[in-house]
Write the structure tokens for this entry.
Amino acid sequence: MDLLNSLLRRRSVVLRLLGVLVLAMLLVPCCPGTAAAQSQAPEQRVKAAFLFKFGGYVEWPSGTFASANAPITIGVMDADELAEELATIVAGRTIDGRSVVIRKLHDRDPITGLNVIFIGKADSGKLAAILSAIKGRATLAVTESEGALELGSMINFIVVDGKIRFDVSLQPAVGENLKISSRLLAVARKVMGSP
């Protein structure tokens, strides 16, 4: 019976995430443009939709938010198109009853006051420096760079057979007292570390 309940819960999570993917794909613009721009737009939309949904599958430590109605702040570094897509997705929506604020970040911008940070493609030196700078701040780190999990990222996007997937590393999350829901882990392509 426990196995059946577990399978049903996993199926429910997969169906919800597939719904998000379908919604993101429906938002693809129908206007003419370059092939590169059109192929890039769906990827950014899917990543933005996932990024929004990730916030609902994380439990932050007590004291993270200044008040019961403080917003969840998502910083997006070096990925302006994704930040714009994310701003469109979160408009009028909440995560666990909290409004969502999006901040576009670039080199030398302060990276304080964030609950989630997405770091666009970056070389390992830059990525390591950013991940080191947010240590101890209970910030969910999401990336899209090869080797990012080994540098301390918690969730890393990858493309497998033309589809956006993600891998999770639990050790950095546990180090920041962030609890990632088993429902999210169930749909990850790969989970590193033990829960």
Observations:
- The first strand starts at residue 58 and ends at 59.
- The beta strands are 58-59, 72-77, 94-95, 98-105, 116-119, 140-143, 155-160, 163-169, 179-180, 190-192.
- Residues 161 and 189 are 12 Å apart (CA to CA).
- Residues 17-38 have pLDDT under 50 and may be disordered.
